[in-house]
Design a protein that fits this description.
Layout lengths: L1 H31 L6 H27 L4 H14 L1 H28 L5 H22 L18
Helix pairs in contact: 1-2, 1-5, 2-4, 3-4, 4-5
The structure holds protoporphyrin IX containing FE.
Length: 157
Amino acid sequence: MYTGLLHLHSALRWVILILLILMIIRSWAGRNGNRSWSEGDRKSALFLMISCHLQLAIGLYQWFTGDWGLALIQANGMADTMKNVVSRFYVIEHTIGMLVAILLSTMAYSLSKKNTEDKVKYGKLFMYYTITFLLIMISIPWPFREVGLNRSWFPGM
Ligand code: HEM
């Protein structure tokens, strides 16, 4: 089951990144044009938030039951865990970075439901989703990074 969830965690990154790019483009277009908040906008923002929350649930499960979270602290102690680049990444950097990103995307969704003028709404959403996107990009263990060594671009590859 753990491997299956790890694959899902890996695949969901692409769903989240694609939805974020879509929302950045939509909010950019809304801020600079005459679009009004649409059902498509609402659905994309909602689906993005659901994907992020699912990712959070899987991530927490991995952190508490897998080899790359709590187990590292229990085996090596906090001080040694922090000294190792890869351990520190999974125990702290990946986790905190993603938690903040998920919080931002949740705040963006609740902001999108507020009854504000569409141009103002799009402007704020553009800012929130851009920061979320950048935060997720730097917190992913990409295969070209030291922390992503032996990890893949796509689940199971
Ligand atoms: C948008 C949010 C997130 C994204 C895009 C993301 C992405 C990823 C990716 C791509 C991997 C590598 C998967 C692989 O090697 O196949 C990974 C691993 C991992 N993630 Fe996340 N993650 C997110 C949130 C979280 C959160 C919030 C936590 C913890 C609470 C977490 C904990 C972990 C752990 C522990 C691993 C290593 C699992 C293992 O190899 O056994 N992730 N994550």
